[in-house]
UniProtKB/TrEMBL annotation:
Protein name (Swiss-Prot/TrEMBL): Nudix hydrolase domain-containing protein
Gene3D superfamilies (UniProt xref): Nucleoside Triphosphate Pyrophosphohydrolase (3.90.79.10)
Stored InterPro entries: NUDIX_hydrolase-like_dom_sf (IPR015797), NUDIX_hydrolase_dom (IPR000086), NUDT19 (IPR039121)
Every Nudix hydrolase domain range: 26-238
Cofactor(s) the protein needs: Mg(2+); Mn(2+)
Keywords: Hydrolase, Magnesium, Manganese, Metal-binding
Length: 285
């Protein structure tokens, strides 16, 4: 069995949910983006360029996944489904068929993916036209807008419209679907995307909810987790495991994915409560 023990309060909460004594909190729609680049490892000459993924360590004070290394992402803002923004790429209805969602929810998911990526990495998947992308998002004016998005003083539609930009949905690819287990106090219905680092753009050193960021090879991140150096949640662990099969960003983006929904669940095993992970690749560090 692949799983995580649920001691103490979590174990008791799991028992109460299974018994119907507690109603699980609803899962909020959310989007996460594995941002990819291909680069030569530092300090090497003969080694081939390697695929790397941008990761953030969530602050220890965060209510969800505190201290874990994650990809940029977060919950959908109700304004993310605003029809006012310019859009290039697959229509919301197409994304909805891929992710099993209605068109409005799908629009919100794609917009949240673009917004959260900009908020937490400074990378913007948008451009002056449907076939261009912003070349530089550094500078005080961009930072002011990024902070306004984080504080919800500015919606994504307002931000893009003000700058005359088109959201590039075609730069995203669907990857997977994870739902937070019912035992958690905060739950998310998260669609995972992948995207390539746009040419010319640079990531920030630290995002709003992170205290550390790093570009890591997928295998490198997995090794660090197995050695206890970093913490990975099961969805991140699986995504990184899947990415180890690729050498090029282009191959990842060209991968024909069947979106499977994963939802860990609580179960009692030999008198103890466990969170069962529906993932044959996952092994608890």
């Amino acid at each position: 069995m692949n799983g995580i023990p649920l001691p103490g309060e979590f174990g008791e909460r799991a028992r109460a949910i299974i018994a119907g004594e507690i109603t699980p909190v609803p899962a909020r729609d959310a989007a996460t983006v594995a941002l990819l680049r291909r680069t030569r490892p530092q300090g090497t000459h003969g080694d081939a360029p390697a695929l790397e993924v941008y990761m953030l360590r969530r602050k220890a004070s965060m209510a969800f996944a505190a201290g874990a290394y994650v990809f940029p992402g977060g919950s959908v803002d109700p304004r993310d489904a605003d029809l006012a923004l310019a859009w290039a790429g697959p229509a919301p209805e197409t994304w909805g068929r891929v992710f099993g969602a209605d068109a409005r929810t799908a629009r919100g998911l794609v917009c949240a993916a673009v917004r959260e990526t900009f908020e937490e990495s400074g990378v913007l998947l948008a451009g002056p036209s449907g076939d261009t992308v912003v070349a530089d998002t550094t500078g005080d004016d961009w930072e002011d807008d990024r902070e306004a998005l984080i504080d919800r003083r500015l919606s994504l539609a307002e931000f893009l419209t003000k700058r005359g930009l088109v959201l590039r949905a075609d730069l995203l690819r669907p990857w997977s679907h994870w739902i937070t287990p019912e035992v958690e106090h905060k739950r998310f219905d998260t669609r995972f995307f992948v995207a390539a680092m746009p040419p010319g753009q640079r990531t920030r050193d630290v995002g709003g909810e992170a205290d550390e960021v790093a570009w890591l090879r997928p295998a490198q991140a997995l090794d660090r987790a197995k050695d206890g150096q970093i913490v990975l949640m099961p969805p991140t662990f699986r995504t990184l495991t899947e990415l180890t099969a690729f050498d090029d960003v282009e191959d990842v983006l060209a991968c024909d994915r069947e979106i499977v929904t994963f939802q860990p669940h609580a179960a009692e095993v030999d008198g103890e409560m466990w969170l069962v992970i529906p993932d044959e690749d996952y092994r608890m560090p």
